[in-house]
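hey team, just a heads up i'm posting the complex here instead of the shared drive bc the drive is being weird again. everything in one block, sequence lines first with there labels, then the predicted structure for the whole assembly after. its two chains so it's a bit long, scroll down
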Amino acid sequence: MDRYTPSLIEPKWQAYWAAHHTFKTPEDPALPKKYVLDMFPYPSGAGLHVGHPEGYTATDIYCRYLRAKGYAVLHPMGWDAFGLPAEQYAIQTGTHPAITTQKNIATFKRQIQALGLSYDWDREIDTTDPQYVKWTQWIFLQLFKRGLAYQTETPVNWCPALGTVLANEEVIDGKSERGNHPVVRLPLRQWMLRITAYADRLLDDLGMVEWPDSTKTMQEEWIGRSEGAEVNFPLADGQGSLEIFTTRPDTLYGVTFMVIAPEHPAVATLTTPEQRAAVDAYVETARNRSDLDRKAAKEKTGVFTGGYAIHPLNGQRVPVWVADYVMMGYGTGAIMAVPAHDQRDFEFARKFGIPVIQVVSADGKLIEDDMTEAMVEQGVAVNSGPYDGLSTAEFKRKVTDDLEAKRQGKGRIEYRLRDWVFSRQRYWGEPFPIYFPVETSGDPRKGDAHTIRYDQPIPLDESELPLRLPDLKDFNPGEDPAGTLARAVDWRFFQKDGKWFARETNTMPQWAGSCWYYLRFMDPKNPAAAWSREAAQRWLPVDLYVGGAEHAVLHLLYARFWHKVLLDSGYVQVPEPFAKLVHQGMILGEVEYTAFRVNGAWVPKEQVVAHPEGGYRHKVSGEEAVPERISEEATEKKGPHIVLKAEPSITVEARAFKMSKSRGNVINPDEVIREHGADALRLYEMFLGPLEATKPWSTTGIQGVSRFLERCWNLGQKPVSAAAPNDELLRLLHKTIRKVGEDIEALRLNTAISAMMILLNELAKADPLPRQGVETLVRLLHPFAPHLAEELWEGLGHAPSLQAVAWPAFDPALCVDAQVVVAVQVGGKMRGTIQLAPGATQDEAVAQARTLDSVQRHLEGKTLRKVIWVQDKLLNLIAG
RNA sequence: GCGAAUGUGGCGGAACUGGUAGACGCACUGGAUUUAGGUUCCAGCGGCUCAGGCCGUGCGGGUUCGAGUCCCGCCGUUCGCACCA
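-- predicted structure starts here --
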């Protein structure tokens, strides 16, 4: 008997599928469609990670299943190939990023193909391909023409180490998300995309998609809509007014001071000569404070400007302070401070001795003298003149109307969401299809004096797309914040009709390519349009989108934004791009065992506590505890603990960590395939647990599924009988068909596999082995372990490919057992089981249950008071 | 601090609308076949036990004939957000 040898059968079937275009997207418009998409990878130099195949295998199983169910399936793959690593490599080595990128793509493609994934490779996309860049630029022009792309001189997050500006969301705790470099604020000319214009729709339309609640919540919070009012406080000196935003206009009578951000333009006009020096010093300090410092500060700081505003309702003079707890970037950069009902204002007022006036009360009583913190709950208005007695909600409504009538304010909706900083000062990105007039009397390429009129951007004509990157030798961003491309003077400056013009030297961020790749996949080779109207009508929306939760906000929000712009322009017809979204969980490294030593002697892990500043401490002595990695062989289980074999009183910690190069726990898919085969890798990753869960890799665990595949193989080598399966096996076949199908549709792939394992265990016992049984197993196995399934199918005398064979059907009548096992309880406690025909009556069940010894024992001397009967499941006898 | 997710054997995990907790697999133990095994097959495998049972799904309460599942209050872990007015 031949042995199961994945290294022989896997390449064979991969070659077969490629030669026969097995996974080519069907053109037939009569077939029902499904568009199943994986988040395409950035082809890094490190190659594929075991995390990648997890989501890819899940969608592959789903697609193979859908094809067998008769769907036309669009399942493409491509490369998100612009990005910093290739450029940084280029800076170090001088290798052009395009070369590195192509090399990495080749590696990724080889690795992905070795997994036997059923992509339609005719639709492969590379975001750096000029034919793709052309349409990315074209979409930018649509945004520009609709007034959604604009330039602004704005303080941006400049990262000197990366030589680039980062979006707010790419900065975490004052450091760059990529590389963890310090970030400073620097005013720079930037392209912005007006995503805030779509804030409401991006928020509301979340109701239309089937996404994880956690992701929807994160997007909602990111957009951060809050309803309130804008109120004008006239300045006491009669010069204009101060506009504030508040979500609590009902607390207007509690205003005892106002605060403006240090960057607020009114700082200059409000500050009195006496206060000037103090204010200037404060503003200067605040400006130099990084976001990190501002955040870390526990104490509120601020300075009185000396200026006053007039309260719009009671006409009182309100002092205006400047403090950095108010941000210029949110609302109007100025607030009315209500210390009684806002914790931040409360802290500030207490520190600077400003009065606190309570204007909301839970029960009508005043507690302001005893306040230790702000009362932020809603309630009933007090101390509020004509509004006394109103509920918070009524007050808000009424006072907003009143202010509007007096032209002193109006209802306003504010968003946390900011416009999107869309330019980068880098080389390896899409150039903007924009140029500017140049005022010069010489030749700007030669360094002659010139002025670029950035205020007069001109869109490139569509016929001139794509605008390609210039070929450079030195990719360093250099000191010029205008970007790497500023040095490519021959590319940058050009003459038209005798006049000089300058191209935009910024490039687009990596998001640009990934914002619309799902659209290009529908019609990837179209030379005349980004995609055709017919393709959009045929394929949108994406029915299932699978990718990491790390993209929960940014990529998914940006893509939705572009999609809605394209909807408004008439290029797509559905409001949301991704109907259903699933995040695959992370695969952690193998479990590691750690024991701790204090002064050289082992201590149990319970005595060790993590120190807030890193490292570990001994709980008892307070001395440093030194962690030491222990091999699995040196440990054993003892009751509920894992202990050192050599010293069983010492408990050890067992934990899995994120895979990382530095930790040395990275599993390479190539090696797993070499040792166990692609089918085993696929199956193992699916069997590990629920798709969405974070789960640790286990090298011994993969042997379990390897063994399962071998046993499937061995079954396929046995002679089969044409005889029908016996009744019990037949029922199991039908139940398994139903279970596997339902589980695939719900992406519960782990339980689908265990159902197939159960079926295999039964088939292995069957003698003779019915052909129908083996064939059913092979057909069910096909989406999961396609190479083995194809091989076995061929061995059973069928012509390939199994993908063309319809998914097996089940008979619901055969999905129930001939006899059901019913649980018998006495007083709610399990006392045994009885076998009954499905549909048996309660009386039959009670009669049979009474014959059980354990039931008789517990009913002895008692009378039966009540019977709980759950049809075909459970009988509970209550006695007393 | 706020928000979300999550907690079940030694391990990964099962358990449909409240109804036999631990499916399936790993590891482990015993046995059979084998020259050999990182092979195959069979059996066992939550804890305690006076062998009848008792206890057991992070902890403490509650609802119910019956709770992993529902309710209330805690604790741990993970992930977001973090002076958003």
